[in-house]
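Worked example 2:
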Amino acid sequence: MIEKTDIGELKGIGEKTRKIFQKINITTVGDLIRYYPRRYDVYEEAVPISELEEEKVQTVSGTIFGRVQVTGNKNMQITTIQVKDTSGILKVIWFRMPFLRTTLSGGGWITLRGKVVNKKGCLTMEHPEIFYPGSKYEEKKDTLQPIYGLTSGLTNNMVMKAVKQALDGLDLTKDILPYELRIKYGLAEYHYAVRGIHFPEDKEVFYHARERLVFEEFLEFILSLRKLKEKNEKLPNEYVIEPKKEVSEFIANLPYELTGAQKRVWREISDDMASDTAMSRLIQGDVGSGKTIVAVLALLTVALNGYQAAMMAPTEVLARQHYESITRMFEKQNIPVKVELLTGSMTAKEKRKTYDRIECGLAKIIIGTHALIQGAVSYDNLALVVTDEQHRFGVKQRETFARKGGEPHVLVMSATPIPRTLAIILYGDLDISVMDELPANRLPIKNCVVDTGYRKTAYSFMKKQIAQGRQCYVICPMVEDSENLEAENVIDYANVLQQEMGNEIVVSYLHGKMKQTEKDDIMDRFGKNEIQILVSTTVIEVGIDVPNATVMMIENAERFGLAQLHQLRGRVGRGRYQSYCIFMSSSKSKETKERLEILNRSNDGFKIASEDLRLRGPGDLFGIRQSGLMNFRLGDVYQDAKVLQMANEAANEITDIDAEWVKNLPNYENTSSVII
């Protein structure tokens, strides 16, 4: 069996199951093998009852205390016991298992493993596995059960069976990485790594397997970046952009003075656009550092030179906000530059008229979404493309723009806080400008880290803010196993919150399963204050700018990396009102409190990112969702910073980038088309 074999060739996968796998982009055996578990169910050491944490699966050992109770009706019988150890008493319940009354009535010592929830202020373990003395929990201790991302109709067991069959039939004897490279960096063999990532015998096997596969993924990425940079450096500047006095006047007439960092970055961009080669530059700046106005200066300068410039936003709502903001600024200063909006939801008639204005050169600045490179749009003389990190602006995108007219200058904006040592590696194909100052008029966000007992107080605070005309975000507790469950979780939370807030306050929700048009509609209504509280998963991380929103409450904050929490916090503090971020955590561990306390003390994204790197340990791989930065399949740039640096060092040692083994890396040819 080879990796390109259709998944339908596997035993037990018929046409119906094949189509279900296709929904999660698995069409070949290779896709299946690289569909890594999103987390693992770990059988860990039993903890004292007093140290149990809400919303976590944990193990306790103790004696059955009191009598067994069975309540409810025929359809839903609930069996309840209490278990006691030296630190406290725990309530335990099972659903539809009345027969347990007989087996549990004898009392005695018992080990239980299940999810701990808060029911009316009391910690309760729901529907746990039972281990009696002699049932050998010790044998299960430290074993890892893979948990995969699922979709409707697909179970975890179906994925496990398919992966086992694929691994058993695959030739894993050939290793892509040269022997010398593996030995130098202490990396596992491929067959050990790919089996160990799906079915690790213990944590040590998992760590070694993961390190090898992450190294390979990073190495592919870095080599592809260098290939892209080499190509970019040879691109001649087809559009030499000269400085314009009107831009200096525009800056002088702004209602605020640019920071020193903004002025410095603007000089670097101006120099690039006037140089011999096409610009490929990244502006790396914290949330609120003023990247957008610098991008506007670049757009305006290009337009005043007689060329066209395009700005790509991640959502239609944000595209519209940029369009309206730029139009207002230009009207206020009597700047005769035609700004155009182009989005996917426009009618065919509206698009045709917009295409005509772009093609004939009447539209000088075009603001939009991916519609800018789709469909029948054709540019007259496109000289600049501004995008943000949510759009992977690589070879294919640049070639698409080139086919629509010339090799444009490229400016990428990123608000993701990454320590400079890592940024140089990750954005290796781009020159980097760092915007490290915040405007003087920005009010720092006030933060607090609290436990779940503070929730009612937080709701009261949100009501007071809404009474003053403000708005709030709530980031809903995450659900790991399924996007469907995540959607249900958001909807349930929003319903409960609506009851809590009353009918005068409008609560709505966002989640990843919604269509983009639905998301845009909700965000648009939130932007107009037709919705006062928006309950969301992390889809809210980008794509909306609501200066009126002043409260961000993040449930289960312990499950996120610090950098992602900082990004979420950046949704508030965008206007003239004092803003607040409430990090709610159910964790009692000292390490978690130390991590979250960093956010409590600082609003500096780069400092937070550095601290995040310092504090993360291997154990975090089981408890913190990956940052999602750069969309790596397995690697996480914060979690795996050391492996990233190792891969970069290895890339430096490869003298012949066309070596046969480099060509054989699974995604080498594709990587440069999906990176920025």
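The chain has a mean pLDDT of 86. Residues 203-233 form the longest helix (31 residues).
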